[in-house]
Amino acid sequence: QVQLVESGGGLVQPGGSLRLSCAASGRNFRINDMSWYRQAPGKQRELVAAVTRGGSANYVDSVQGRFTISRDNANTVTLQMNSLKPEDTAVYYCNADAYLYAFMNYQAYWGQGTQVTVSS
Length: 120
What we know:
Elements lengths: L1 E6 L2 E3 L5 E9 L2 E11 L6 E6 L5 E3 L7 E7 L2 E6 L8 E11 L4 E6 L3 E5 L2
Parallel strand pairs: 2-11
Antiparallel strand pairs: 1-3, 3-8, 4-5, 4-9, 5-6, 7-8, 9-10, 9-11
């Protein structure tokens, strides 16, 4: 099994920055893609950004140019969020696509979520 632990959420004023981190731990696994999703009250969870094991990234249009996703190492992903807007307020979830050697298959895992609030 794989556990994802997130950190870095909080309250920030519009135009400010936050950095989210997510670390995967466990045994006998290999992380492929990692991504960040978010869910605002009353809305569906949406993909914000994703990065492959090789470092190729893609973003939802609303955060392009403001957010940067990166792999610090094979099992850690960071989301640097700049120029934050009130509409970025949501619970942010880390997601990892892991290959489990014991079962020889892929499994998706989620973090517990971290609140990001952008407000003056």
